[in-house]
């Protein structure tokens, strides 16, 4: 029923809905209601939405296996997730570090959670760049699918980064880590079944 209702929703609506948290944060910043530490609140807000959207993107394929086909929204969801990662990184570079390169470069390699976050960001770049029909044609469906499996290690690293930043395991951290573990288990289970049936 949900899939049928969503059939009439154009995929570009994901860009509009996806922009709402960023617009809300902008509004809160401009009205001074974002909190006592605006820099941290912006950084955290963008990072949290990046992670939520990355995990939501990974849910699309398993949902199709259980009959809810949202595949036509996957590209847009992934690109919005990437945009939040880039905004989170940009917020760190600009409002947090103030573009002080002498401090940024040592920080990039010194603080482990930054190294892990950076690795996740770097892994997501080829995925964002190839999220178009021309790249699928160029790489071939098989090659494209293989490349886009990078979304899993990237999201694992992003979750580890989140855990390292918080140091304490709040309910939110555990929920994201739990969903991620379930997604990985479903993926591995399906691959094993396919391999066994093919063997
Ligand atoms: C896929 C990539 C990334 C994701 C999904 C992500 C997500 C997050 C999340 C969820 C938080 C914690 C928010 C909270 O505690 O409520 C966070 C914090 C943070 N992230 Fe990221 N992040 C990513 C990449 C990066 C990169 C590339 C950098 C910088 C090079 C970075 C720098 C930071 C910093 C400085 C904090 C705040 C630390 C503090 O509270 O002092 N992140 N990130």
In words, what does this structure look like?
The chain has nine helices and no strands. The protein has one domain (2-191). The chain is mainly alpha-helical.
Query: What would the principal axes of the Cα set say about the shape?
Result: globular
Mean pLDDT: 94
Radius of gyration from the CA trace? Answer: 18 Å
- Bound ligands: protoporphyrin IX containing FE
Q: In angstroms, what separates the terminal alpha carbons?
A: 37 Å
Q: What is the succession of H and E elements?
A: HHHHHHHHH
What structural category do the secondary elements indicate? mainly alpha
Number of domains: 1
User: Main β-sheet: number of strands, strand sense, barrel status?
Assistant: none
Helical run tally:
9
- The helix content is over 70%
Relative strand content: under 5%
What is the strand tally? 0
Low-confidence stretches: none
